[in-house]
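Incident review: delayed structure delivery

Summary: a single-chain prediction request sat in the queue longer than the usual turnaround. Root cause was a stuck worker, restarted by the on-call engineer. No data loss occurred. The affected request and its eventual output are reproduced below so the record is complete for anyone auditing the incident later.

Affected input:
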Amino acid sequence: MASIENGADAWFKIEQGVFKAGGRWTITESARLDRQLRDFDAGSGDITAMDAGAVEKLDSSGAWLLLRTHRALEKAGRRVGALQVPERYASLLENLDRDDKKQGHGHPAPRMSPWHYRLYRIGKAAVEAGRQAWRMLGYLGRVTVETGEMLATPRKNLRFAAMAVQVEETGISALPIVGLLAFLIGIVLAYQGADQLKRFGAEIFTINLLGVGVLREIGGLITAIIVAGRSGSAFTAHLGSMRVNQEIDAMQTMGLNTVDTLVLPRVIGLVISLPLLTFYANIMALIGGAMMCYFDLGITIPVFLRQLNQAVDVGTLMVGLVKAPVFAFVIALVGCYEGFQVERNAASVGLLTTRSVVESVFLVIVLDAAFSVMFSVLGI
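Output delivered after worker restart:
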């Protein structure tokens, strides 16, 4: 392309292998410069550098045109080095270049077939899941260290008032919804079990099915899922709102330990309340199952209790309860972690609250499956 330098405010030319630009590269000149630069053949000639030191005025539109030309020369195989601009515009160019690359505009992705694009999406999701797991593992390590320091000097570090508030909010306030759902699940489980066992004349073993199923698996799992949707999401939303309002930044400025102040009371409070909620849910589910057996099968309460005593023991109850603190720790950890990841906008609070619930429920089910396999191998 021929050199372009005329009476216009903005100009560029090629001189001794150097792309030179000057004048006022502003939005008023951007339309004309855009047309001329698009006609510019980056692969022709022997361009070895870009020098915009003669630019008198530069705004974001002009800076973008210079960056686009610089990238076009590099893409054509030219080693032009860094783009030279007046020092007062260096930060503008640097910020624009960084933001553009962050959005993925710096290096356009190659066109893919639909099949390759699906594989790309799957791979990208897998890599992001691995990074998320790694970051959460690091956060688990930090919380574990803080917990150890708190247990070493509980009178100094343990915040009893905050912990009591969390026990009330996550435990006592959750009694109505947990009790109602557990009661209904007991009814459904007893009804479905009786419907199948009637075919073999073994209705009495509906009590065995109900007792073992509720105490070992259903009671703890359902309670953990309810708490994950109720309390885990509340942790994320509360901490996220504090982050949006810059309250967490203010606490850090004052020298307060946010893990000690905000995370540990929630973790310990939920670890205390979830086993109690699980025991309560077990009782309510058994009551619902007993009512169903009475009205559908004619099994009286004394007969129900006698058969239940033969079907289960304290070990069956403890198998279900021992999982509750682990579930509680994971739910609180995920809820608090996602709360600290919230960006300073309202949309991020909703997005990460949803992610917190999904991750908590997923991890609870995975852990429950792991416990089931472990207990089976140990013969428990």
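Verification: The radius of gyration is 32 Å.
Action items: add queue-age alerting; document worker restart procedure.
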